[in-house]
Design goal:
Strands 4-3-2-1-10-11 form a 6-stranded mixed sheet, covered by helices on one side. With 244 residues, it is an alpha/beta fold. It has one domain: Metallo-dependent phosphatases (Purple Acid Phosphatase, chain A, domain 2), CATH 3.60.21.10. α1 packs parallel to α2. The structure holds ligand LP5 and manganese (II) ion. The site of ligand LP5 has 24 residues, from α4 and α6.
Amino acid sequence: MSHSLLISDLHLNNQEAGLTRLFEHFLTHIAPNAEALYILGDLFEYWLGDDTLDLPLHQQVCCALRQLSDSGVKLFFLHGNRDFLLGARFAETCGASFLPDPNLINLHGATSLLMHGDTLCTDDVDYQAFRQQVHQPAWQQQFLAQTLSTRVALAQTAREQSTAAKLNKSASIMDVNPDAVINIFRQYGYPRLIHGHTHRPAHHRLTVDGHACERWVLHDWHGTQGGYLRCDEQGCQLIALHTP
Ligand code: LP5
Ligand code: MN
């Protein structure tokens, strides 16, 4: 049956070759039968500019994605909070298109709203301030103009600060805000909502203004495990994935 797959939060990096292998397995054994693959952000641990496309990991991942898109599977990306600097050259190289966040699509007959998920975490005021800053075109231009070694150092500092900041944040602060979820359902006409970021894979059902709504949260990938959402005209299903 015609279906699409959605994934997010793989955080591919040089230290975890097994994770990249699991992703390649997914791309060669599971994704080829899909009509489309949607990657809803944080494919990479971080992305410091499209001038890093020739790094071995980036080449390996782009090449695997290109094979999939060349085989006829449509490939779509949303930016995550780690790889918000992925750009047009990256998309072209992989044969993919970027979608805005949020983005409303018709997913096999059901209107579905795709998001990374970070913008729903409105209680995380420090993160939202950080996000606002790094999404400014002037900030991005200035950042991308630095040498790669300076960008690597800045990213490492940012990662350390993020890890330290999270120690002082409660689990609820780092989850979606219930009112932000209700507002997004209202604003977009009560679609099926699909997002990642929070690393809490789940299928939530809720009623908003008398409308039955659903919110799907995608798996994060770590170690030897990952997961994906499979959607067809009958509905969606979260499927866990392990290294074969
Ligand atoms: O990413 P994760 O899972 O640890 O936590 C996220 C939020 N943190 C972030 C920050 C990223 O991890 C940083 C790495 C991105 C690299 C991209 C390119 C380089 C950019 C360089 C920037 C200078 O997204 C975290 C949320 C959590 O999700 C849950 O939702 O809580 O938010 C924070 O931790 C934000 C902090 O509260 C405040 C900001 C810390 C970063 C400050 C950077 C300053 C660098 C200064 C260098 C001199
Ligand atoms: Mn994220």
